[in-house]
Amino acid sequence: MAWPLLGSQASAFVRSQLRLPSNPFTLGVASGDPSPDGFVLWTRLAPNPLEGGGMPAQNVEVKWEVADDEAMSRPIIKGTTVATPDLAHSVHVEVPGLKPDRWYFYRFTAAGEASPVGRARTAPARGTTPEKLKFAFASCQHWESGLYTAYQHMAKEGLDLVAHLGDYIYEGGPTTKGVRRHSDIESGAKLLTLLDFRNRHAQYKTDEHLQAAHAMCPWLVTWDDHEVMNNYATLISENPKETVEEFASKRAAAYRAYYEHMPLRSSAIPKGPDMQLYRSVSFGGLAEFAVLDTRQYRSDQPCGDGNKPPCPEVFDEKRTILGDTQEKWLYDTLTKSGAKWNILAQQVMVGRLDRTVGEEVTYPLDQWPGYEASRQRLLKHFKANPDLNPVVLTGDIHANFVHDLVIDDRATGQPVVGTEFVGTSISSSGDGVEKRKGHDEIMSENPCMKFMNGERGYVSCEVTPSTWTSKYQVVPVVSKPGGELVTRKTYVVENGRPGAQEA
Questions:
Q1: Residue 190 has pLDDT above 50, yes or no
Q2: The dihedral formed by the CA atoms of 149, 152, 158 and 163, expressed in degrees to the nearest 10
Q3: pTM of the model
Q4: Read out DSSP for 110-138?
């Protein structure tokens, strides 16, 4: 199934004058995927966000404008688009014709109401190398497990960009054990229908701190598994009783709702259960982001999934975590990049982390170590192209790690070919601890690992032509408001010298 382009006026009637029972901009505003001449602007009209949005089943006119100042007194460009029922009255405006490497402000108006004002920055012009890029990356924001205090702090950092690496929502039904509660849903214990997924995205979007972080700067977004179902692989459900056809229908609903709630370009509009999310975004000659999708195209997890010793299936050359087309695209993108730093914004850990204390060696087989042929090709590409300055950004695991990437993690004296920064969750798993059980033993059994931490938070990065600095920003308490922000560790990578050093 394919859906019409947002803003299409194929339906003849468009409501330009409309009265609604309340303000439709309950979900805030967002921007994303900056280019040298523009960015994507997003909002969704939803006066009743937790019950389908509360909009009439009609096309609605939405005006947008971009200005030099936050008061919106000096408009630069403006236009009109159409919010359609087919896409839950979301709008995705690809703003053209702006100047590179500068800040702008934007807002929407519809039904006599104005949205909050957001701020967005265009990317530097191609061929130019800016002095600095300051961004953060985050993932895993389970609504019930904790508050989004990390976003409250992130919104004050003055960032150029945020990369979200997946698990933006969680698909489980409501429980009584969390800090707050998922809304009751008609379909039962897990999300099933398009309405279910729309309501869940909307509930998460109502959080004021998440809205503030979206309004602060452009975001680069990609998904992991919980946007659909835990540990799914291509069209294979985690539930063995669910058929491929049933899961394809669920995935189509989940992907559609994801697009409807994210600042993505029209090139990402899903077609049934398929949606191309992998793409590259450049920040001039300083940094190139390769935004990956390690979920949609992967082979099924080996050995029955789980944290296990690697079985022969792990090493099967035919098994893939990216899929052949995306993998070829990635290496082509890296070859053509020319940026001083090449960043893989992706979901699951690349470094092999033995998570069992003692002689037995086990790996989480949902991660890259469960797809060793794919992992080896990636690391060998890094080794063969040292000028890439590759940095891998990872989420998923609800903990902080720093890895030096090598071809063989279990051998000594291996040359370092890249650096992996793994960021913890925003809220998933609730209040954390600085050192989990077995911390010292696991650190000693994984010589390529520089840092491990079990608190909540995000990673703030500052990139210059000569150095990369990652600050592990943690919020020890997310079970109640007002949690403080602590810079737990800081690591530096030097241009031309892969591997992280504690600052």
A1: yes
A2: 60
A3: 0.96
A4: ETTEEPPPEEEEPPPPTT---S-EEEEEE
